[in-house]
Design brief:
The complex is a heterodimer of chains A (404) and B (222). By secondary structure, chain A is an alpha/beta fold. Chain A has 2 domains: 187 residues, 3-Layer(aba) Sandwich (Rossmann fold); 181 residues, Rossmann fold (3-Layer(aba) Sandwich). Helix content of chain A is 43%, strand content 15%. A 6-stranded parallel beta sheet of chain A has the order 2-1-3-4-5-6, with helices on one face. In chain A, strand 10, helix 11 and strand 11 form a beta-alpha-beta unit. Chain B folds into 2 domains: 96 residues, no CATH class; 107 residues, no CATH class. A two-stranded antiparallel ribbon of chain B has the order 1-2. Chain B is an alpha+beta fold. Chain B is elongated. At the A-B interface, helix 2, strand 6, helix 14, helix 15 and strand 13 of A face strand 1, helix 2, strand 2 and helix 7 of B. Strand 6 of chain A pairs antiparallel with strand 1 of chain B, so a sheet runs across the interface.
Chain lengths: 404, 222
């Protein structure tokens, strides 16, 4: 795993010096992260990288998990969908299952942090264990238009925290506690984002029987989840295919807390089975393969209906790839339309944008290059670490200008 | 090479790091935007008039403040957007007077174009008020003469340059930028101090600004 010094060639010595300066101010504090899974999904991915780096900066950071079980995760997946605004039938039984599992966690999870950092709704009830320490609730979900019943239920817990953190301003609302805006990030040195040799990229294509030969590759990397609209991507591809002979890769793994994935994958396979240029790849947890597929692609698409943030966009832009993506969640923060990518609102719009990029390689290249610089300045893990360190310090300072 | 004057007091470089705090306040119409601009804290006005400088430093030197960007891009009021974008921020010595200018600009426009009040942003495109929480801390860099000053300028973070040029002058109401103040009072070079004061930093990207500061200082010492 990369050491903090290895980021200097990417972001500059002084950025790392600043991180050390702020980290020093947190000496003696223990930061305890808690979420529901250590593998799969964006939260686990970020914590896997960030926890060791914070420790290297001598910020005592630890990471604990809650326990769930199948029923609990089915309910939290329903909550997740409902918070994203998808119609879901939530019953009293669902709330009961949630509270029963939560009660077990309240009894079993050891809370020792000076700052307890709770990620997403699954462990939200742990706030009942609040004592003199500081508690942060980190919302990684697009809650711009949530199911109000679920949100009201969660609100009972949220208001007991010291602060909440959202990824974009659109997810915030008037709350009686402080709220911070912190975008997630990618790690440029992780297996998913580091530079790869051509033979590694070609090896991955070979493994999945994909040949590049004069046929541009369009790729969406995402879990098989309806909110990522894989069927919509196939429709976009079909509209473009009439004019440009291209191929489509839909590739993704699965998260332990997402029991719906297998069903969606089956539906997508069924829809794609007539076309040999559509490659549906169920990836094991293998970041090098994701990296290789992104780098082998001509254009990356991210046609989500909702997004917590949409870090696959940042990953693609960091590789200087042209991107077509929906104007949802945190995606418009990553793409300035026509400058660092193309935003769309519909299947037709995505198809039109994709045709433009496939037919104008010089324009596509420029968008990708601009995108890479935008990611370098705003969405790398070093900026994210800085934001978290400042967030922790903010809990001890109420003023808007703080002299340290 | 002329002998360098030693400073009476060394220049200590500080850095300013910020985290964005959400207010939960949002506007869908110009009238709501105006009402909230009057109400929010100075830290929020500061955030929306300076955010672009740090987040889009590579993009363009133009300072498209968030109000101008939203009014143009979402409400389609190009003329008001242009008026807001061209507010000469460098002329204002504190956030209060900058806020008053923004309010006056919107009110003037609404008096002459009352139909603009009828336009509204659709769901998801509202203006969200955010504020900057700044942390100011000393770095390990200190300059005792202009040579050391310029060498540090070349390698310090843009956050530090940002702090001494923008934040110190407007938000902390020091009247001028910290570099000019030190060069005039501690080095005694009023000419160089004036030259830096005369720069309009809002029309540079931060990297451009760094290069310009380095160039004009080096001209004096070589």
């Amino acid at each position: 795993m990369a050491k903090i010094e290895e980021y200097i060639p990417i972001v500059g010595q002084s950025v790392i010096d600043d991180l050390r300066l702020i980290a020093e101010k947190l000496k003696g504090k223990v930061i305890q992260h808690i979420n529901s899974t250590s593998v799969g999904g964006g939260v686990a991915e970020i914590l896997n990288r960030m926890v060791p780096l914070l420790r290297e900066l001598e910020v005592d950071t630890r990471w604990d998990l809650i326990k769930g079980g199948e029923q609990f995760f089915e309910v939290t997946k329903k909550f997740h969908n409902a918070l994203h605004g998808r119609p879901e039938e939530i019953t009293q039984r669902d709330f009961d299952i949630f509270m029963e599992a939560s009660q077990r966690n309240i009894e079993e999870v050891n809370i020792y942090g000076d700052i307890v950092f709770i990620h997403d709704p699954q462990p939200i009830t742990l706030i009942k264990k609040k004592s003199n320490n500081k508690w942060i609730w980190r919302c990684h979900i697009d809650v711009s238009n949530p199911n109000e019943r679920v949100f009201r239920f969660l609100m009972n817990f949220i208001i007991q925290y010291d602060a909440a953190v959202f990824s974009t301003p659109a997810f915030s609302r008037k709350l009686p506690i402080r709220q911070f805006l912190i975008s997630p990030s990618i790690d440029p040195l992780s297996d998913k984002n580091k530079d790869l040799a051509d033979d590694v990229i070609n090896g991955v294509l070979q493994k999945y029987n994909i040949t590049k030969k004069n046929k541009p590759i369009v790729t969406q990397i995402s879990r098989f989840d309806r909110l990522k609209d894989p069927q919509g991507v196939i429709e976009v591809y079909k509209q473009v295919k009439k004019y440009t002979n291209c191929q489509l890769i839909l590739a993704g793994g699965s998260a332990m807390d997402d029991p719906e994935g297998a069903k969606v994958l089956e539906e997508v396979r069924e829809n794609a089975k007539q076309d040999k240029d559509i490659h549906i790849l169920k990836l094991a947890q293998n970041d090098i393969e994701v990296n290789a597929l992104q780098r082998a692609s001509t254009v990356i698409i991210q046609k989500s209906l909702k997004e917590g943030f949409g870090l696959t966009v940042a990953e693609a832009l960091w590789k200087a790839k042209p991107v077509v993506a929906s104007n949802v969640g945190g995606i418009p923060l990553q793409i300035k339309h026509k400058y660092s990518g193309l935003l769309c609102h519909s299947i037709q719009g995505a198809a039109f944008a994709l045709k433009q990029l496939l037919n104008s390689p010089a324009y596509a290249k420029k968008l990708g290059e601009n995108g890479r610089e935008h990611i370098r300045n705003n969405f790398l893990i070093t900026r994210h670490i800085q934001d978290y360190l400042l967030l922790f310090l903010s809990l001890y300072h109420k003023e808007d200008v703080v002299y340290l | 090479m002329p002998e360098l004057r030693k400073a009476k007091e060394p220049f200590r470089f500080f850095t300013r790091l910020h985290v964005s705090e959400l207010t939960g306040l949002r506007a869908s119409t110009l009238s709501q935007l105006l009402a909230l601009i009057k109400e929010v804290s100075g830290s929020s006005i500061y955030h929306h008039t300076h955010r672009f400088l740090q987040q889009h430093q590579y993009l363009s030197p133009e300072p498209p403040n968030d109000f101008a960007y939203w009014v143009t891009g979402i409400l389609g009021e190009d003329e008001l957007g242009e008026r807001l974008a061209s507010i000469d921020t460098i002329q204002f010595s504190n956030i209060r007077s900058l806020r008053e200018k923004i309010i006056e600009t919107i009110e003037d426009y609404l008096r002459n174009s009352p139909l603009a009040k009828l336009k509204f942003a659709k769901e998801g495109e509202e203006f969200h008020f955010v504020k900057s929480v700044s942390f100011i801390l000393p770095t390990n860099f200190m300059a005792y003469d202009l040579r050391e000053f310029v060498d540090i300028l070349k390698k310090i973070t843009i956050d530090s340059i940002y702090f001494h040029v923008f934040e110190a002058r407007l938000r902390l109401e020091r009247g001028t930028n910290d570099f000019s103040y030190w060069i005039e009072t501690s080095i005694g070079d009023k000419e160089l101090a004036d030259e830096i004061t005369k720069l309009d930093p809002y029309t540079h990207t931060l990297e451009d600004l760094r290069n310009t500061l380095v160039r004009i200082t080096e001209n004096k010492i070589t």
